Amino acid sequence: MTTFNTPKQPRGRKAGRRSPLASVALIAIGLLFTGGAYAAFSTSTASAETNATSQQTVGEGQKLFAANCATCHGLAAQGSGSGPSLIGVGAAAVDFQVGTGRMPMQMNGPQAQKKKVQFTEEQIASLAAYVASLAPGPGKPDASLLDAEGNAANGAELFRINCAMCHNVAGAGGALTAGKYAPNLKGVTEAHIYEAMVTGPQSMPVFNDMNISPESKRDIITYLKYLEKTPSPGGLALGSLGPVSEGLFLWIFGLGSIVALTVWITAKSN
């Protein structure tokens, strides 16, 4: 009788069964694939929602522009005899001009007057987004440049060199030619100061990043805000207009008092 010996199975694993490490690897691959697919889908969805929101904002801005600005600046912001082209001025110019109430203009004159703002912040943002979509231009400044926590001493030096000849060393403003003027900078927001420097409204020159770096602009803002918070060391500031106002004060009140006293003494002597 022939005896057949059945081969023995190796110990530790039954026949036809995968290693536990293989199962773990399959689960890990499945999780990675699922997570990657979900992340890609979420990113594409968020990007699509952002683009849709941006397009909606631009569309709202275009409607507002057509209703309030196109009369002077043209339907395509190309400009006309009543207003300049806005192509390439960027969101910063719109935020400054509309955010300070200078636009829409109340009446024709040497320069636009600051007045009550006519639009909400959302509407201003929509107008800025529409104008920015027409061509590249200066954008709104980053919040880190508007904290007024820069170097006030450096800002004071830069302001004296670049701005004081028009705005006065204390930022009190001053008269220019042809009925124009440099406005008082007290109470102007940090964002609008920065936007004025990069866009050059009215008679003001443009100070791009090659002329004055963003950090230096932050220093100038810091200096101006320091002036607002610090009282005049000499007491009555007389409008911070410098020797002009001080000289007028002396001539009118000082010499006037002397003349009045002289007349009174003469009258008593007689």
Automatic annotation (TrEMBL):
It is a multi-pass membrane protein. The chain crosses the membrane at residues 248-267. Gene3D superfamilies: Cytochrome c-like domain. GO terms for molecular function: heme binding; iron ion binding; quinol-cytochrome-c reductase activity. It holds the Pfam family Cytochrom_C. Its main location: membrane. GO terms for cellular component: plasma membrane. It comes from the Bacteria. The keyword Signal applies. InterPro entries: bc1_cytC-su (IPR009152), Cyt_c-like_dom (IPR009056), Cyt_c-like_dom_sf (IPR036909), Cytochrome_c_Oxidase_Subunit (IPR050597). Heme c 2 binds at C163, C166, H167. Heme c 1 binds at C69, C72, H73. The cytochrome bc1 complex is composed of a cytochrome b (QcrB), the Rieske iron-sulfur protein (QcrA) and a diheme cytochrome c (QcrC) subunit. This is Cytochrome bc1 complex cytochrome c subunit.
